[in-house]
Amino acid sequence: MEIAIRPKLDRADVEEIARKHLPGPVEVIAHEEFKDGFFNAAHALELADGRHVVVKVAPDKAHKLLRYEVDLMATEIECFERGLAAGVPMPALHFGDPEGGVMIIDRLKGISFPKAKDDMSKADLLVVRREIGALSARFATVSGERFGYPRKSGRTVADTWSASFQAMIADVLADIAENGSPLPCPAGEITALVAAESDLLDEVTRPALVHFDLWDGNVFVERADAGWRVEAFIDGERAFYGDPIAEIVSLEFCPDDESAAAVEGFLGRGLTAGEERRLTLYRIYLMLILIAECEVRGFDEELTANQRGWSTESLVKNLASLKA
């Protein structure tokens, strides 16, 4: 799939990056471009010495981006460095240049979760969901100095979670207004609903690392002796420091019984009423992002209509839940 903002690199470009930033002689014997991402370019290289790596390159800074997407590669590199140090299964990071928008990581040996599902029994699926929940909880063991996105601008950085989250909401609503994205209700109504939950948000007192993009495509699995196991998580560019409960938003993009297994793995218990309400706020935030990005990604008409349709439907449902 062609995405307008994704960098267009040929094999020679990618080989040059690898030779510049990897140690030792770099003799490339195979190349593959991954075209299923919506933001960064990603190219796999097989080297003559047996190394298998992926080179990721961020969009040119001249492109129109959403406010939260500025310095996105810097965020992903930080997520990898801190996640790996905390024992989160992620590909080894061989090189990271936040300013240049380049990172080089190991290529994983397994396959993406969506591709593996057809070969899994229901029991296998539930085991993997619980493992995804348990392993993703390791992100939350990492603490930030303050809440918000780790951007140079500090636009959303704050000492309280309510202040930071309201700034995050304000940014995406500003993107929506600026780009003319359709909303099912006035932006001011959404702002007021979130502001009314300040006390609830401030029950979160530690800025925990949240990946916030653990949908199935960002989970790789591999066969184990008795079934399947999680190999690693990828794509940490949406990460921020905030409420660990926000991680559940992407973990629950699956059938109800599988979602329950993921939450069980993540928390080891059910959600409290307060956590359920905060989770509703985080669903609203993600749906606003998905609506906003339709105007800047260069999607085709069919993809735009599909993403805008289901994300708006979910936004309406979750807004109604807050009002109830």
From TrEMBL:
Residues 33-276 form the Aminoglycoside phosphotransferase domain. It comes from the Bacteria. This is Aminoglycoside phosphotransferase family protein. It comes from Glycomyces luteolus.
